[in-house]
Amino acid sequence: MSLTPLDIHNKEFNRGFRGYDEDEVNEFLDQVIKDYEAVIREKKDLHEKLSKLDEKLSYFTNIEETLNKSIIVAQETGEEVKRNANKEARLIVKEAEKNADRIINEALSKSRRIMLDIEELKKQSSVYRTRFRMLIEAQLEMLKNEDWDGLKPSSEDDDEQSLHLEELKS
Description:
By secondary structure, the chain is mostly helical.
């Protein structure tokens, strides 16, 4: 059990034959009491300070644990977001590849149809040119034929036609 300043102050010493000077001892004890009180106050202050620091340490430890948990959750969330983004990116790429294949196939098919149409048009054009050439040649042959000379109207025929036209007009 530790001494209190009151214990020191109330302490009575027996008197001996050749004892210490009582005033000096009392002065010394007064100084010891003051120092002891200062030490007790300092100890009390240090205990209070230690208590406050313990509270702060506990508070910051809780914050640290919370932050650590938050960091772990954030890392897990980040990884999940990353996995989902990669999965979505793969799906987008697959879809784009399928669309690209479809577009290429459609373009190739359309190109084949156009090529077939071009070939058909070339054939039709060739047939048309041949027929048209044959028609023109036939017409030229007809024009070269001397039978046309016999179809030329005489002047009497012209007079009859004129009369006939006048009759029709009236």
